[in-house]
Design a protein that fits this description.
The chain is of the alpha+beta class and 725 residues long. It contains 26 helices and 19 strands.
Length: 725
């Protein structure tokens, strides 16, 4: 067994693509080896700004010989069938086949023996395949080279079993009389590019070398590599950290140390940390200072400007306010300790923040209400009108939500405040600051509203109307904020549903999944009692939508959220399957009561009995289609002969009498307790009563009706058929 280290060295790879690229390299390469008959024990992939790296262990030096048998048609089959079999098996004539009597006739068998190949041959082939089909989100060509890669690919390093594979990547020109590699004839991949051991010099697209290179500036010389451990050690000596997790840990630790020495704390930002780790091969965090002249600009503006334009980390004072310090991560060790680097970054930041201050000063000269006419010139979507038209919909929907909520959440809400917040929520889209920093939509509107002296409820609602934006983000709780934020999201969802622009697979260009999750949090975390189908109708404003389909979309998102909270998804399905449950608060209360019930002994046993009853009924209905309609009738009390079936009938009457009122008053725990009373009589019924009494058709039918009623009674609480046992 041998080890492998593979490196693709290139110009700088965009930070946002590195993690996915490392995963794709590992997946494509391991799949290629497996398909070629080479196993492995371990594989891991890494990325730096300039390289993709794969480390593997446990690779055999040669793939095993393979003997494969394929059964063909009968020996007396038509000629066309035999020809198709030969072609599929890769054989030329029947002389290469065996005839065997299988007991069901004589058949042709093809015995195909494939000799194993040297691992180095397989590795070259797989590298060519990976290069040919690597799924970069965006890629490029450079010069006259036909190879497509994210950035110019400089060289390849492949060390297997301590030996570097040399040569080069060439184009597999199958249309030329002197092409290098007949992929089809060799049983290969058919790749467009191949790794050739002795290529003609003029044909090399990317050279394969026995060396790599260190840090672009601090150690650009060649480094000879013997294996992965040696590779990591020597690159670290050459100022390159191969593992992104190590680079992130270094950035975090050294940045926190610098902050501690400066008397401030680092603002946590995992996304920025991951991005910066993808920009440097040797991270060197340094502390800089923000000119105090900019500290009266809103903190969100300063943080966004530093993060978006400069990739700086913000800092907080011990009191939690934005500090006039920032952390910049250099990619080099400076001889002066970084003083020039810090000074240069401070100069750049002053220029950036001067622009931000200009927008801040200019924007405050106009009131939000004065900006509303400009929304007529901003198209929200070609089929959904302008932002001005959308504002009118949001105003109407926020008012409808306030009226539709049935438990008084909005009873103290000032309708004038609600209308003002909804009408002004999108006004900052016409501001210079939001034009420069779209991430600050809503936030800036909240600041401008506050400076105008608008009521705090209004300014907060404007600032919060995009919230929550994710599972960890803050959810609004003020009534005006909740109504406007929910109206904004539901208008988006219903609008795109109406024009049939729904998420498909992994594609969600309008972030409708996020809008649904945000809506669910607004409803459930504030206990809003809303019938979603009624709210969907109000949001549609006369447009045609499939409310059931949209509710199912909400159900899928609710299952995601519930799973994160430890709630089983099948229980959500069981409650949604009732068909008339669109009150999310009530639904979740029912789901939580159901989860507690099915986790108890009574619940587990009742589920077993339910499934047994349902399966018997289904089996009999399949045998006799006419029986299905008859079973739906109520059992005849006069035909209840055995004590056990009488006890079940009485228990069902009692359970229905108790569960019904409990469900009506939304006491789902009491409803589950009523069902628990069915456990003992059902156990006795299945022990003592024979359902399919062939000699008594009337008794058999009555008992099937009783079983059907068991399912119907239990299903009044939740559809137990959806619960996974």
């Amino acid at each position: 067994m041998a080890k492998l280290v593979l490196e693709f060295l290139s110009e700088e790879i965009p930070a946002r693509m590195q993690a996915r690229a490392a995963e794709d390299l590992k997946r494509l390469f391991t799949e290629g080896l497996t398909q070629a008959g080479l196993d492995f024990a371990f594989a891991a992939a890494f990325a730096t700004p300039r390289r993709l790296v794969l480390a593997m262990d446990g690779i055999p030096l040669r793939s095993a010989d393979v003997r494969e048998e394929k059964r063909g048609p009968r020996t007396d089959a038509p000629a066309r069938a035999i020809e198709g079999f030969l072609k599929g098996a890769g054989l030329n004539s029947l002389d290469q086949c065996e005839k065997r009597d299988t007991g069901k006739g004589e058949f042709y068998f093809a015995v195909i023996e494939k000799k194993g190949r040297n691992a180095t041959e397989v590795l070259r082939e797989v590298i060519g395949k990976v290069l040919s089909g690597f799924p970069w989100p965006k890629s490029m060509r450079w010069g006259a080279r036909p190879l497509v890669w994210v950035r110019p690919l400089q060289q390849i390093l492949c060390v297997f079993n301590g030996v570097a594979l040399k040569g080069g990547i060439v184009e597999n020109r199958a249309d030329s009389p002197d092409f290098y590699f007949d992929a089809a004839a060799q049983g290969g991949t058919g790749s467009r590019f191949v790794f050739v051991e002795s290529p003609r010099a003029n044909d090399v697209i990317v050279p394969a070398r026995e060396t790599t290179r260190g840090h672009r500036f601090m150690a650009p010389g060649e480094i000879r590599v013997e294996g992965y451990t040696d590779y990591v050690r020597k690159l670290k000596q050459a100022y390159v950290m191969v593992d992104a997790e190590e680079r992130k840990a270094v950035i975090r630790t050294k940045a926190e140390t610098a902050c501690r020495e400066a008397g401030v704390t680092l603002v946590k930002d995992d996304a920025l940390l991951a991005e910066v780790a993808g920009l440097v091969e040797w991270p060197v965090p340094m502390m800089g200072t923000i000119d105090r002249a900019f500290m009266d600009v809103p903190a969100e503006v300063l943080i966004t400007s530093m993060k978006t334009h400069q990739r700086y980390f913000a800092c907080h004072t011990r009191g939690g306010e934005l500090a006039n310090r920032f952390v910049v991560v250099a990619n080099t060790v400076a001889p002066d300790g970084g003083r020039e680097i810090v000074a240069g970054n401070e100069r750049v930041l002053r220029a950036r923040l001067s622009d931000a201050r200009f927008f801040w000063d200019q924007d405050r000269k106009a009131k939000l209400a004065d900006r509303l006419p400009a929304l007529k010139d901003i198209v929200f979507h070609a089929k959904l009108g302008t932002q001005a038209e959308r504002v009118e919909r949001i105003v109407a929907l926020a008012q409808a939500i306030m009226k539709a909520e049935s438990c008084g959440f909005f009873h103290m809400t000032d309708p004038a405040h609600l209308e003002a917040a909804a009408r002004l929520a999108k006004a900052d889209l016409t501001s210079g600051m939001v034009g420069e920093f779209p991430e600050l939509q809503g936030v800036m509107g909240g600041y401008y509203a506050q400076l105008e002296g608008l009521p705090l409820e209004v300014s907060n609602a404007i600032a919060d109307h995009y919230a929550p934006t994710g599972p960890e983000s803050r959810c609004p709780h003020s009534p005006v904020s909740v109504a406007v934020a929910l109206a904004d999201k539901l208008d988006t969802l219903v609008g795109f549903w109406a024009i049939d622009e729904k998420p498909t697979g992994s594609k969600d260009p309008y972030a409708l999944r996020r809008a649904a999750l945000g809506s669910i949090r607004l409803v459930t975390e504030n206990g809003l009692r809303l019938k979603l189908t009624d709210v969907f109708k109000a949001a549609a404003a006369g447009r045609t939508i499939n409310s059931g389909e949209l509710l199912a979309f909400f159900a899928d998102r609710l299952k995601v959220q519930a799973r994160e909270q430890g709630v089983r998804h099948d229980l959500v399905n069981a409650v949604f399957a009732l068909g008339d449950e669109d009150d999310l608060v009530r639904l979740l209360a029912r789901v939580k009561a159901l989860q507690a019930f099915v986790g108890s002994d009574d619940g587990k046993n009742l589920l077993v009995a339910y499934n047994r009853a349902a399966n018997i009924v289904k089996a009999e209905e399949r045998k006799d289609k006419a029986l299905a309609g008859q079973i739906k009738s109520v059992p005849d009390p006069a035909l209840l002969e055995q004590a056990e079936e009488k006890a079940v009938a009485a228990a069902l009457e009692g359970a229905a009498a108790s569960a019904g009122p409990a469900l009506a008053r939304e006491d789902f725990t009491a409803a589950m307790s009523a069902l628990a009373a069915l456990r003992a009589p059902l156990d006795a019924f299945f022990d003592k009563v024979t359902v399919n009494v062939a000699e008594r058709p009337d008794l058999r039918l009555n008992r099937l009706r009783l079983l059907r009623r068991i399912s119907a009674t239990i299903d009044s609480v939740a559809d137990f058929s959806k619960i996974e046992s």
